[in-house]
Amino acid sequence: MSSMALSVVLDKHIRRLCLDQFPCGTGSWRKGGISSDTETLTEDTDTLLDLLSCPHSPWHHDEPWSPQAAALQRVAVVEPERLDTDFVCSYFRKLRIVDKDVSVIDNYLLKFCNLQELVLSANRICEISAENLPRTLKVLELRANQLCALGRLAISPPPRLQYLGLAANYLGSRRDVAHLTGRQWPELVCLDLSECDFGEQRPLLKALGTLPCLRTLVLEGNPFTLAPSYPGFAVDALPRLCYLDAAWIAPEERHRYRGMARMRHLLVDWASTTVRVGRMQGVPDPSLDAAPDAPEFPVVSYSYFVSYMFFSHHTTAYREVVAGATVRVQDPAAEQTQTPSKKSDKETLVSIVAEGSKDLSSSIESRHRTSSRSWSDCVDFGDTLMFVVRDLSSFKKFLHRGLRLFIEQEKTLSWPAEASDDVVGQGAVDKKGKQGKAKDKRKKAAVELVAEPPTATVMASAHVSLRGLLDGHDKVDILCDFGSLCKDPPGDDGSTSSENVIADNKSKDESKKKGAGGARAGNRKPSTAKGSRKGRGSEERDGDTPTQTETATVELSVELKKWRHASEARDMSVALAAVLGTLLLQTGVRGFGILPGDSQDHLEITERAILNVTVRVCLALAEAEGNDFTLPPQPFTVTGVAVACRAQNSIKSFQKAIRSIVFRNVRVDIQKALNASFHFDDESFAGGRKIIAEGLRIVKDSNREENFEGAQDELGTILHPLQDFYSHSNWVELGKKYPNSNLLQLDAIIGNIAAESRATCRSCDGDDCRDNILEDIIVEQILTSGYFSLNVISPTKPSGKCSHGGAVDQTSRIEPTGGINKDTFGSEHGFLHEEAADLATAATSQILESVREDAGDVPFLRMLGISRGSGKALCFVIDTTQSMSDAIAAVRDAASFLVDGQAGTDNQPSSYILVPFNDPDVGPLERTSDSEAFGSLIRDLSASGGGDDRELSLSGLRLALTNVPQSSDIFLFTDAAAKDEQLKSSVIVLIERTQSVVYFLIPGTTMENRRRRPRPAPTRRQQGNRITPSDAQLYRDLAQAAGGLVIQVEEDQLLNATRVIGQLSNSSVVTLVQASRNPGQGGTFTFRLDPTTTNVRLFITGSPGRVVLTDPEGSSVTVGDPGANSLIVSSQSFGNFQSLELNKRVGEWRVEVTSTAPYTLRVTGQSPLDFLFDFVEYVPFQNTFDVVETRPTAGGNASLLVTLTGSDTATVTSVSLVQSADSQEEEGVVEPRGTNGTFLVRVNRIPSVPFTVRVKGSQANAAGGDSFLFERQSSTSFRASNLTIEATAEDVLVPGTPYSVPFSLSAEDGGGNVSIRITTNNPLYVASGPSALRLEPGASANGTAALSVPLNTPSGATVTLVIEAEGPGELGINYMVLRISVFNPVADSAAPVCQVLSVVNCVQNSSAASWDLSVRVSDGPDGTGVERVNRTRGDGTLLLTPAPDGILATYNASCDSPDLELLVADRVGNVDTCSFNAFTATSGGPSSIPPLSGLGYVAIALALGVTRSLNAW
To answer: How far is CA 55 from CA 50, 69, 1005, in A?
Structure first.
């Protein structure tokens, strides 16, 4: 089709006005005109005007294309002399050129210099240039054209444009979004973008938010409007908007959605659609068609189901359960060819549809079906299927097309299990009398039947229109009428015809109910192979008896999920991410779910939620940084998630954090088993909510203090009652589908709680407790929970109350009997176990998101042990006494080298800790995550003070060990012996507890070198060797316990030695073998290299004599010989320290040492494959294991829980305890526990000497080859004890209140006076207790530790309380380390406020290019103070300056960026937002939206009118 210019159409319209022809113009027909013919009739002006205006005049024409057309004709009559081309064009104010095939807007339009309104709807315009539009234009309507880009239109458009209609065009790209800002359209009041292809809300609404005058917006019909977040997200994101989709935005509506746009992690661009198939009626009874002389076999049975085609994608589809129904994962290839598996009644499934190609051809319609039902007059399928869709553009196209609905019949033939031809034939020809027939029937009933696979036949089909969902309705309810159904007789080949004729059908109540969309259902017209048929649905039956025909109908509803409140948006977004596992956050991602299996426990629920939320956080970080993100394989694992988060070096610390949280969760069942509030038993909702809300505050406060281990402990504790709420209360039975978010808030209402006197349950019917909750409780939505008691003698509960239930609950035997718990599938309400577990998972995700929102993404991940670096802490303990003056510079260089060398790399520590020690002062401890700030602390160190030959090195080390996180690397620099050697046992206790590695670097201890540097005034170091062999042995013992090394070098070698030893601080370092011999003796040590291990090094300290290495191939070399290079890549020696880098040769190596001098040997490598372990004990009454936080009993049996890290396929084959002194091993029995790489190991005898843990295993080769073997050994040595210590502490310490920790000691054999040492991690935390207890053999001794902290101790701090007991003789030493969280209650419940101090506004139509704002953020006189101010909206420059009463915020931005939003938070987690606008902000008061001018209201009315009038197009 050729192009049509607008000028051609306009010229044609103007010529049709006949401005120079009768009755217009200056012709002879005018009185007073010049005429050559005196007989010509003339008319006066009034008569001519009447001819134009009279409805019956042939010269009267309605000209809809412009209201000025008729007026111009009148001008042509009254003042014809004014008519010329310029005048005519300038006369027009409005032009309406609709459906004229216009495709080109040429510069002819510029002649219309006074044009204000231009309507060009329903044409073929592909592109429009703003340079051809009059600058006076105020209204531009381009609806239903073929616009595919806004680039040329947005280049200098008419500056006064107030209405822009772009509906029903091919717009939606990000470039189009970039052209819809206030820079291009500064006065735009109304914008119509309906029926376009905008698929992403956030960028579009962000751009539209810059339109300073926008008051009316039409967006319906865009793909993103199908999302649950629409319209709420748009209403909240555009606070100045008055009308959205032709509806007024009421204040209460805006209030409902308040805060939704600020939810950073809201899932906004996906749709949730629920399809429900209800009752089917009118299907003919198949038994009426059975022939009376039919053979006995086969037995024919019929069943019916309804299927439909719904939007899907060309790759594998995942189907999963909502609220606990059974999960199925289907192969769509099989789905198209096989009969789908049946579902249970009322089953709710979810189909996750991923974002794919925008090409419609890539999307398909997959068939979904109900369960099969036998025939009845009315079959109620009650089948519900939810679809979660990310590809909204393709989904919109599907809704345009509608869905196809089918009624299908399944025919099943059943035969005798051992049928012979005779039996079958007899059934066909048997002609016996009545007695024979009765006998045959008895015989038939006794025959075992075998059914053939059913064959399905489509009886009828219909097409259902879903257009209503695109027109703004949330739901369509359709009664599909299929007409009269008659079965087709078999064809020649025995098949049944399934041809369908589709006809239109209207939905029921379409015009009465909002949400009712149109439907076109099909009548299947009966047809037969021979042109005739008989049956129930025919007009006549045998004997020509007329019959009543009945139409077949199916009830169908399709509903789009919409959020009606901001809280619902938050809860549902988290719930879908957790329960459904949607995470539909990148192209190609389809979804994941909870696979069916045994009952889910706290461990599984907690770990699954943590993994899900972690993936979302890492994805958000990747998007913010502009990086790609690859979703880890399903199901999520620790290794897969860490790799996806680009935190491979954090796998071990991530796993450790999850274990810590999980063990704390499980421990609640052990230590708080009878505390009803921790389990929401006994209707203790207030107490349970208090535990959760206050604990959540502690978690957030702990993160602010960077006390991540304390946050893990408290998080695990509060997750237990949070998860129990859904299992022990009737929340699920009340029909709730989402978590109760009010459990996280102290002052919120969590539900309508049952009064103490109100009955809630009836007794169960035997073992059936499905209906034991009273109906009025359900109807009135009354919240209750079960009562629980272990009191066998006299259990009690209030009359009529529900019980928890189960074998040990004694209240379940009191009327009303039974219970309501959903803990397992075998519980009284176990039929709801999946629903409860899913809600518990969603609630866990919800509380994790709350912690994340408060902390921020990076600190949240650090709490979980994930960082882009090593995930470990780097700690320096440095002697700063005067004697170090010669070496302090070398120490600064060495420490700075480690800090600077790791900064910005994959090995950067997650935190840095510095503990200087002097005499008599130790500390203060400095902690930071900023490498540059820490480097400054190192560089500021200097040497002074002291006064004797020995220093407080162990005091400094103990302070570090009580504050470092697990698995830290500690470097201690000193040149002196320890004067506090009595702390040796305490230090070893803390080494075991934290499993930290300690390296001792001792500079300047070689006497010969010291004598070469005489000085006029000898220092104490130069007067003699400060460290004797016995002194050095103390450090060696500690290094052996910690898996570290003692390196004695000169100052000038310290940096090089540190460079070598610093490689061991890499988080991927694994220990392959380690040993220590003192006194020296020979030995043979073996270790195995596997394909995952690189950078293999052998470290030797001391004087081992002759060392021989043998590789897996049998080649041997002696260390130090010239020919050793074949196995040794490089070798370095410093003082007593030697480092050898070995060639990587997979297999078993051997190290043979011949020596009489003491030495240590350690072989390490780098590998992702490692292990974690804890000593655990079995808790029979809870059928679980609890972590043992003391030393195991020497000589007794013990259990270990071992978890492999860095691999999802490796398995453990052997675990043994290796004695450090002689390498003897005690091997345990390995039992796999679950599928997450965890193994239970039972050891019959615990060594009485120090030992390490060695793990052997195998893993399938990643390349698909044979499996390989691996070995790992713990770096930390452990000890056993004959002394047992037990202690239990309350979880929370409140400053200023008494706090005590009772503890007890016991021993099976021996006794005497036991020394007690009670210490804390901070000198300000004062602990006291007995210094000794008398212990009698076979008895126990009890004591109490009292603890107090300063009143100003911040909430979130952790007190590490160490209770150490040392008995005489073989009793040995044991300990208990308790981490206690500090909760400092405050009355501050209000968020900080913002006060505008000064503002320079932008002015409409002004040349001002920028605006300035000054705001004071304060927390009030009773507040805790402003902690942070973050910008959440605005592209200008923000400067934050501390002020005495808060924070001063100054802001400057372009007028094109008129909005600023600040998130303000105080020190106790109260958060709010302050919003400002360049055009409305005022000094000293809140901002407000100015009232619309009269022109604004006119423009709104015009926009709404134009929109409605053009709907037909």
So the answer is: 9, 16, 118
